[in-house]
């Protein structure tokens, strides 16, 4: 099944649920279509994840993470190899 076909089977409520998420760190699962919840993170220039019992707004509850220059700074170098390398590191 293609993504387009899958999306066409979502109800309006399910689409809203996916857009809103289950909580601050997880997407909503749509069990009837086999769509699992996904853990997400934030950080405009790195990754950040709060411990399971932590408060999303309390930065002291964040787990150890990575931090890179903001995207606008990276872009201003016009160095595609550097941008690709940062992307690989973030992906790892």
- Strand and helix order: HHHH
Number of domains: 2
Report the portion of residues in β strands: under 5%
Sheet/helix structural class: mainly alpha
Low-confidence spans? none
Specify the helix fraction band.
25-40%
Commentary on this structure:
This protein is mainly α and 92 residues long. It folds into 2 domains: 40 residues, no CATH class; 51 residues, no CATH class. The protein is 36% helix and 0% strand. It contains 4 helices and no strands. The longest helix has 12 residues. The radius of gyration is 17 Å and the shape is flat. The protein starts with a helix and ends with a helix. 0% of the residues are buried. The model has no long low-confidence stretch (mean pLDDT 85).
List the helices and strands and how they pair.
Elements: H1 3-9, H2 12-20, H3 71-75, H4 80-91
